[in-house]
Amino acid sequence: MFALTIIVLVFFFFINAFKINFFKDDFFFLQISHVHDLKGFLNFFSPIRTYSYKPLASEVFYFFIRNNIFIGRLIVFVTYLTGLCFLYRSIFFLSKNSLLAKLTVFLYAISFVHVFQLYWLATYQEVVVFAALTISFYLFLQKNIIQVSFFIY
Fold first, then answer.
1. 119-139 pLDDT per residue, tens
2. Which of 6, 18, 61, 85 is the most exposed, having the fewest neighbouring CB atoms within 10 Å of its CB?
3. Domain limits at 142?
């Protein structure tokens, strides 16, 4: 029930993100991720390119969403909600206090700080880092597997 409440609240507070079109850097990323073959896609990983800004998460993200902004927004929100889920699990694992974990995730989830991360697709790498950090930290706590947690991050 708590997870559903968080999902509804996040969508309620940030629903206008679904109404915003591509913005500023989004057009640059759309242009550089517009490839027609496997060689162009593999060029994302090349250290020798004509432009210097190379956040891999953003380039691959834009390659897969192409011009479908709804799919892009949906991917951002699912990634964000995944990070929130593992944040809850980590806090609960450490504190054994469900109320503390729920309150912390609630305040973090609806914080105004996330406006740029959820509205501006060019900052998708920040959402990916949040999700990767929470997943790897939880795996580290749960199974004490350092190699797996570092691999995910």
1. 777 778 888 889 999 998 898
2. 18
3. 2-11+24-37+54-152
